[in-house]
């Protein structure tokens, strides 16, 4: 007897099959991996928005939409004889087991932070060319900078102490103050980029996720000033 999860998941997959069939929906039949990119991005951000709003009902709905996107892409790949939804699920299962040797193997790791470091080390070993291969190019800049700094730290790069980072930030700020109106915009952009990267370094040492805290700060400003015209 099939479990409820199996029944409901199979029903959603079959629905996708119908929508992509000759008697299905013209819009769904027309889509491909590339045309669905914006839909995938939008659904992902709607999930994040539901989390930020602490709205379980909305989160349930948006997770369903995101799941539908995964099934959609898997169906397109199946039509091209590349892979199907079963391959996606099997791949995810095998990857998670492989990356949790402290649960499914003999490796001993204590503490969540150590688990994250070990996870990133395994991902770097899986990279074919560069240690940065597994970092998506389209990641938001702050999040991407944090991932790069974490990987470099695992390779032995020393970012210095908290005081060292604060001194670098002070130096960047002083440089900007002195050069405003005297240097070209391109020079100021470079210094500002260094400042932002150093702030991410500070966040890394403080174990604070910069993308998240900036997002929360923006939300506070929107809430405070959103009603004012």
Structure explained in plain terms:
The protein has 229 residues and is mainly alpha-helical. The chain folds into two domains: 4-98, Orthogonal Bundle (Helix Hairpins), CATH 1.10.287; 139-218, Helix Hairpins (Orthogonal Bundle), CATH 1.10.287. It has eleven helices and no strands. The chain has helices at residues 4-20, 26-30, 37-52, 56-79, 85-98, 101-104, 112-126, 141-154, 162-179, 185-205, 210-225. It is globular and about 65 Å long. The termini are far apart.
Features:
mainly alpha, 11 helices, single chain
What is the radius of gyration?
23 Å
**Unreliable spans:** none
The largest sheet is: none
Order of SSEs: HHHHHHHHHHH
From the N-terminal CA to the C-terminal CA, the straight-line distance is: 60 Å
User: Strand portion, in percent?
Assistant: under 5%
CATH topology grouping of the largest domain = Helix Hairpins
* SS class: mainly alpha
Count of DSSP strands: 0
Mean pLDDT: 88
Helix content: over 70%
Number of domains: 2
What is the second-level CATH architecture of the largest domain? Orthogonal Bundle
Task: Compute the number of helices.
Answer: 11
What sort of overall outline do the alpha carbons produce when their principal axes are compared? globular
CATH class of the largest domain: Mainly Alpha
* Superfamily (CATH H level) name of the largest domain: MazG-like
């Amino acid at each position: 007897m099939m479990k409820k999860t199996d029944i409901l998941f199979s029903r959603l997959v079959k629905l996708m099959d119908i929508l992509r069939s000759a008697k299905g929906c013209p819009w769904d039949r027309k889509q491909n991996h590339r045309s669905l990119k914006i839909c995938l991005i939008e659904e992902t951000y709607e999930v994040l928005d539901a989390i930020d709003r602490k709205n379980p009902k909305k989160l349930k709905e948006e997770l369903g939409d995101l799941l539908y996107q995964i099934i959609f892409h898997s169906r397109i790949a199946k039509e091209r004889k590349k892979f199907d939804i079963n391959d996606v699920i099997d791949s995810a299962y095998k990857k998670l087991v492989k990356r949790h040797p402290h649960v499914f193997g003999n490796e001993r790791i204590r503490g969540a932070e150590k688990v994250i470091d070990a996870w990133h080390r395994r991902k770097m070993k899986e990279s074919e060319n560069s240690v940065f291969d597994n970092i998506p190019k389209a990641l938001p800049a702050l999040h991407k900078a944090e991932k790069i700094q974490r990987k470099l730290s695992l390779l032995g790069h020393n970012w210095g102490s908290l005081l060292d980072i604060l001194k670098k930030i002070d130096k960047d700020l002083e440089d900007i103050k002195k050069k405003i109106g005297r240097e070209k915009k391109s020079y100021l952009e470079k210094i500002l980029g260094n400042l932002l990267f150093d702030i991410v370094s500070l966040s890394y040492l403080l174990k604070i996720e910069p993308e998240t805290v900036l997002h929360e700060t923006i939300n506070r400003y929107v809430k405070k000033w959103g009603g004012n015209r």
